[in-house]
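Work Package 4 report. The design task specified in the project plan requires that, given a folded chain encoded as structure tokens, an amino acid be chosen for each position. We show below one input record used in the internal validation round.
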């Protein structure tokens, strides 16, 4: 698979089979992803990979919180600006329409949206997951490094025939994740990532993108 194919075939997959993801594949991918760039080579990512019993335990604990209607953990970072302005606001609502529309859930049915979103805490059925932390001392440039690292992981997983879904949702249950992973206190959970083989019976709508001239400016001589 070439890089273009890896980039264009990556999408947030929200339905996985229980097919085992071999440890050696994960090690190969994470060894290669370590070559992701970072400013001054800080490599500010801290990744935890969960499979088998520990992942099942995490899904169980998170599921219990969902069932109990437990409030989300207080955020350690702001996931979105409080008042999202144009054009981001419109893009976000178009995404919501697409994501939940594909599941036949109307805009006003917030409860059904919540129910669909709660599949996050089952990792959409995935048998492997990665949780990426960053030191709380780090600033925007290092958060960006972590983003590059995660995209590198996702593309390499595509090259192995696997799919992913990055999940900031896990930050909402970060204390439950910490119960299973016991990370050092100085780390903040940025996001989780479901990893596995796609369940092709789960329908989806491909999420669109803004036209090139909305996000790219060529300044030519
Ligand atoms: C940092 C990050 C966090 C995300 N968090 C979630 C999440 O919690 N749950 C989810 O279902 N999708 C999540 N996504 C997936 C995005 O919704 C998805 O990437 C976006 O809508 C574009 O769609 P595509 O990846 O299928 O092209 C996340 C993506 C990123 C990059």
């Amino acid at each position: 698979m070439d890089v273009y194919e890896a980039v264009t075939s990556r999408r947030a997959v929200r339905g996985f089979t229980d097919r085992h993801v071999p440890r050696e594949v994960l090690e190969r991918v994470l060894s290669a992803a370590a070559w992701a760039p970072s400013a001054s080579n800080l490599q500010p990512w801290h990744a935890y990979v969960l499979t088998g019993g520990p992942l099942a335990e995490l899904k169980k604990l998170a599921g219990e919180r969902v069932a109990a209607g437990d409030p989300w953990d207080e955020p350690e970072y702001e996931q979105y600006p409080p008042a999202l302005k144009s054009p981001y606001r419109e893009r976000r609502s178009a995404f919501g329409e697409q994501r939940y529309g594909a599941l036949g859930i109307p805009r006003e049915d917030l409860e059904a949206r919540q129910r669909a979103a709660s599949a996050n805490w089952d990792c959409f059925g995935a048998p492997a997951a990665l949780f990426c932390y960053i030191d709380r001392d780090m600033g925007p440039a290092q958060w960006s490094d972590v983003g590059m690292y995660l995209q590198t992981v996702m593309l390499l997983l595509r090259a192995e025939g696997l799919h992913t879904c990055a999940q900031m949702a896990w930050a909402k249950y970060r204390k439950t994740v910490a119960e299973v992973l016991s990370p050092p206190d100085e780390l903040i959970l940025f996001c989780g990532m479901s990893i596995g083989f796609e369940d092709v019976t789960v329908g989806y709508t491909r999420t669109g993108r803004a036209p090139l001239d909305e996000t790219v400016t060529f300044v030519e001589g």
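Helices lie at 3-9, 23-33, 52-67, 88-101, 110-117, 140-159, 174-181, 212-215. Validation will be extended to a larger panel in the next phase.
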